[in-house]
Amino acid sequence: MTRVLVTGGAGFIGSHIVDDLLEHGVEVVALDALHPGAHAGRPAYLHPEAEHVLGDVRDAEVVERCLRGVDAVCHQAAMVGLGTDLGDITDYVSHNDLGTASLLAAMHWSGFRGRLVLASSMAVYGEGRYRCPEHEVVRPDPRQRGRMASGVFDPPCPVCGRDLVPEPVGEDAPPDPRNVYAATKLHQEHLCAAFGRETGTPVTALRYHNVYGPRMPRETPYAGVASIFRSALEAGRAPRVFEDGAQLRDLIHVRDVARANVLALRSELPVPGAFNVASGQPRSIGEMAFALADAFGSVAPRPIITGEFRLGDVRHIVASPRRAERELGFHARVPFGEGMREFALAPLRDPVVG
Questions:
Q1: Residues near 94 by beta carbon (within 8 Å), at least 6 away in sequence
Q2: Within a 10 A sphere around the Cβ of 141, how many other Cβ atoms?
Q3: Strand, helix or coil for residue 26
Q4: Catalytic: 181?
Q5: Residue 248 three-state SS
Q6: Model's pTM, two decimal places?
Q7: Do the beta carbons of residue 288 and residue 340 sit within 8 Å?
Q8: Catalytic pick among 125, 181, 212, 222
Q9: Cα pseudo-dihedral 85, 86, 88, 91, rounded to 10
Q10: pLDDT of 172-206, one tens digit each?
Q11: Of 1, 10, 5, 7, whose CA–CA distance to 28 is shortest?
């Protein structure tokens, strides 16, 4: 592999992938629309050795130009997060699904026959894996507003109503997207898989868990929870932790996520299929909020557990990283405490306000 197209190459994760590829001597074309919801302009951190192209992945003419001479595509461009409400649905479908379809069409017309690595998400699983003491592994029903409003956040066994124990979810779990963003990420996987079957293109779908680290956008409706907490602390506000703070996630540093992409792109033979990109070390959302506050020092306000909730959120989703370890040779390197201390001081990216 000598030349790679990275879509979303100016973004939070994409820019780290660009940097990592260049360090390995790979030429990079970085395509990014610099969407005002994520960027206030051209970021200062863009690597000067990459070829940066300002353009939308939905623009076939631009994409076809970017594909000239590349032997791999790393597709990171997407809208992320839960957004504000269902009014965002057309934007998510346009940027994520239509954007992916447009990219694949351009790859087809260009005669592309390299490998494709897709940024997917743990959101495709919906709720994670749960075990009932009586009924073994079960799939909880969608969370109910009334139950959550009364302060009961953990899902019960759908058969007997008993409490469930969360377990790591593997890639063979059936998808169950429970919000618009999750549905678009699963559709991206399906579109890329169909393209791979038709053309013989090897497709690797990396299902990111909760990514954090330098270059995250500041607090917006589309930012991750780590960025929202970090922005609050920087502004002298207490992070507001929804539910009871006990919801479990797998938090992984952006440098580890970039490295997983580079492993998939540079492996001697393609490694097709879906892979969890995760640390394998579950943490609660409350634990993350307090770790960030501690990293800010004694003057930082303490997080507030609010009891608020969003119906589209899932309660627990933690991952098994075993397949990625076995087939990609990937394991997370940045420890949680070290990563949080770095993130507390790292510069964030300013989006356009309004």
A1: 58
A2: 11
A3: coil
A4: yes
A5: strand
A6: 0.93
A7: yes
A8: 181
A9: 160
A10: 999 999 889 999 999 999 999 999 999 999 999 99
A11: 5
pLDDT for the residue numbered 83: 59
Tokens in use for 3?
């030349």
3-state secondary structure 323-348: HHHHHHCCCCCCCHHHHHHHHHHCCC
Confidence class of residue 353 from pLDDT cuts 50, 70 and 90? low
Please give the structure tokens belonging to residue 347. Answer: 């510069």
Of the candidates 7, 9, 33, 31, which has an alpha carbon nearest to the alpha carbon of residue 20? Answer: 9
Helices (H), the chain: 12-23, 60-67, 89-92, 99-109, 145-149, 180-199, 225-234, 254-266, 285-296, 322-323, 336-345
Provide the token pair at 255.
């440098």
* CA pseudo-torsion sign 79, 80, 84, 90: positive
**Token pair belonging to 128:** 């994670």
Task: Count CA atoms closer than 13 A to 232's CA, side-chain side.
Answer: 20
HSE of 152 in the Cβ direction (CA atoms, 13 Å)? 12
Task: Point out which residues pair with 284 in neighbouring strands.
Answer: 248
pLDDT in tens, 37-83: 778 789 999 999 999 999 999 999 999 999 999 999 999 999 987 65
